[in-house]
Amino acid sequence: MFATLPLNALRAFESAARLLSFKAAAAELSVTPTAVSHQIRALETWLGVQLFERQPRQVRLTDGGQRLFHSLHGALLEVAQSVDTLRPQRTNTHLTLSTTAAFATLWLVPRLGRFYARHPNINVRLDTHCEVVDLHQDASVDLVVRYSLDSYPNLYGLCLFDEHFGVYGSPEQVALAAQRQPTLISVRWHNSKLYAHGWEAWCAQAGETWLARQPCMREYDEEHYALQAAIAGQGLVLASNILASESLASGLLVAYRPQIQVNGAGYSALCVPGRERHPPVRAFFQWLEEEARQSAHALKNSVKLFEDRVTQI
Fold first, then answer.
1. CATH numbers and ranges of domains, the chain
2. Most buried of the four, 65, 150, 205, 287, by CB within 10 Å?
3. What percent of the chain has pLDDT above 70?
4. Given this model, what pLDDT does residue 311 score?
5. SS in 3 state form for the chain?
6. Per-residue pLDDT tens for 135-149?
7. Alpha-carbon distances of 199 from 71, 134, 202, 235, 255, rounded to whole Å
8. Residues 6 or more apart whose Cβ sits within 8 Å of residue 124
9. Is the model's pLDDT at 312 over the cut of 80?
């Protein structure tokens, strides 16, 4: 069945397509760039279609090349993972996760000890650079956790939770906000669509006139800085209920009018199709799903507890 498949040419193509470079593919395969070029030319002749657009100093995949790469990359990845399961298990297995610094700092890392307690031989490496990773091109990243309004039909995905924005502050600042105009803390997001007009939407829903009275506004580039400012008593912050959850549970922050919430986007864990079956990735997906469910349950309970206290008062 597979006797006529040009396996060496397919391997050369997968490497060149993933790296978008014949030279880089040659280095990865320990051959010359000329050898990679000849293999890909032979593959194009065998298929009868052009796979790359050759441009000065770069190459680009054609539509046919994109289709072949997506199916071939997943197939080779599955073969590599199957082979790995037959080898003697190494003492430690590494897993690379790409996400935002705020999500890693405020939600993931405080819970990561529970993952290590269950899987002590899996080491999780966090990549928190701002650039969005193309998982089909960068095989060094096993999975990503993204906060987005978009869908990713070409990736395997697990929806973790939808997000809402509320107003939080230290207990002292929340008490003072009922008596006087508070200082407002905001985040200067790189993707303004996900946070634009957040304070306006919250104030309109709450019936607060703070913005009309030209409040003192503090802006930070990252959410964890804004939350730390609120914890330090610098004002009230409009923040994600997910990212504020640990500070709420510890009592460092309390909600101001928690029944008022502004809809956000959603968090999803994503990987290249097929990679979710790799044992470390599968274990991390399962753990993430459990933690997300517990986190959502805890948030609902904390809001209900606060509302019950308000009713009793």
1. 7-86 (1.10.10.10), 93-313 (3.40.190.290)
2. 65
3. 88
4. 46
5. CCCCCCHHHHHHHHHHHHHCCHHHHHHHHCCCHHHHHHHHHHHHHHHCCCCEEEECCEEEECHHHHHHHHHHHHHHHHHHHHHHHHCCCCCCEEEEEECCHHHHHHHHHHHHHHHHHHCCCEEEEEECCCCCCCCCCCCCCCEEEEEECCCCCCCEEEEEEEEEEEEEECHHHHHHHCCCCCCEEEECCCCHHHCCCHHHHHHHHHCCCCHHHCCCEEEECCHHHHHHHHHCCCCEEEEECCCCHHHHHHCCCEEECCCCCEEEEEEEEEECCCHHHCHHHHHHHHHHHHHHHHHHHHHHHHHHHHHHHHHHC
6. 877 778 899 998 877
7. 45, 32, 5, 14, 15
8. 95, 96, 97, 112, 115, 116, 284
9. no
Local confidence band at 92 (pLDDT 50, 70, 90 cut-offs): low
Q: How many CB atoms lie within 10 A of CB 147?
A: 20
Using only the alpha carbons of the chain, give its radius of gyration: 25
| In contact, 254 and 171? CB cutoff 8 Å | yes
Q: What is the mean pLDDT of residues 74-89?
A: 71
**pTM of the entire structure?**
0.67
The strand pairing partners of 269, in sequence order, are 145, 158
Q: What is the C-alpha to C-alpha distance for residues 266 and 269, in angstroms, rounded to an integer? A: 10
